[in-house]
Amino acid sequence: MKQIIAGLIAAGILSIVVLLLFMGEDDTTPEDILEEHDIEGEAVETQVEHFEKTPLDFDEVVASVDGERLRIETAANFMKIPLEDKFYLSFAPYIDDTHPCSIHNLTTCRAELDEETFDVRITNENGVIFEDTLTTHENGFKGVWLERDIEATLHIIHGDLEVSREIETYQDSPTCITDIQLT
Hints:
Blueprint: H1 2-23, H2 30-36, H3 44-53, E1 62-65, E2 69-73, E3 78-82, E4 86-91, E5 104-105, E6 117-124, E7 127-135, E8 142-147, E9 151-158, E10 161-168, E11 176-177
Parallel strand pairs: 4-11
Antiparallel strand pairs: 1-2, 1-5, 2-3, 4-8, 6-7, 6-9, 9-10
């Protein structure tokens, strides 16, 4: 019996060693990812937009944005790039299906209406602060850069459907808006 147990333990250890030898350890760093995607040294706005619109293997890299920073994470390491005095708001209008979200994950968040065009207007007490026709990316999201520390209204029109929602751009405000159902 002891020989069987010892044999099983030895086989298990050998299996683990072989697995580790064949798997190797991924030592890709966030800096490597930025260089690989040719956005190293670019402005944070360019980096965020790149991760938002580029389908990536999220086993390789995870990029998210909160009210303070862009965070890029690999198996080996992570880095934080400050947003400075701007705020990135990513939104995903929907008709039938959505998911809860508050911190936008640029590489894993997926929404219903991909590559669709919307008329977007953002207003506050001073008037219109953003107005444009935008097309969502393959992930169903579109983001805009706004001034930090404001309260405003996001208004979206898609054909004969529309939705409005109050938004804020404070440090702890959501950067991912998914509760905007077009009706």
